[in-house]
Every structure is written in structure tokens, then in C-alpha cells.
Amino acid sequence: MILEDNQNVVKPRNSRAARPKVVYQWTVQDVQKWFDYYVLYGEKFLQHEIIGRALIRINENQLYRMGIINQDHSQDICREILKLRLKTYILEFRDLECNNLYD
Predict the structure, then answer these.
(1) How would you write the chain as a 3-class SS string?
(2) Which of residues 7 and 55 earns the better pLDDT score?
């Protein structure tokens, strides 16, 4: 399992609560922090300069082309990316709901 790094936290405008930085705004370094669990493959993501916007679009075929040929690892990585994508969508929906409340 890949663990999320709480260092990618920013304070949104008009809110006191800290929330994670939106994934599609992540830099290569942010992806590396998130990807620390798979030490074997973190370097591959760094070599390909994978940023957050690219990370949430990666599939198993792309991982294979990057050199991640172990199918179990590839599936684990894709599962964690899917979780990250879902968390991003949830945050975006919450933002939309909050914006609609104040309109």
C-alpha cells in the first residue's frame, strides 16, 4: 500500500482546515513523496518526470512501458492511483458544494 504524505497540505482560502494539495497540481517531487513506498519504482517515475496530472491518468500498460513488469506491483500501483483519483474527485465535489452554498 502506498501511503499519502501529509506534507502536501495547503490551507484553502476562507477556511481554517488544512486539506491536501490537489493531485493534478503536484510536482515531480510531490509524486516522489507520495510514491516512497515503492522504492524500486520511484526512480522510474522520477526519470519519466511524472507529475500529478500524469500520475492520475497512468494505467497498467503505461507502467509496463516504464519498466514496471511485475503484474502484482503494477496492479497495486494502479489501485493506489485510483484511490488518489477518487479522493481528488471527492475534494472537488466538496468544493463545488461549498461554492454553491455561498452563491
Answers:
(1) CCCCCCCCEECCCCCCCCEECCHHHCCHHHHHHHCCCCHHHHHHHHHCCCCHHHHCCCCHHHHHHHCCCCHHHHHHHHHHHHHHHHHHHHHHHHHHHHHHHHC
(2) 55
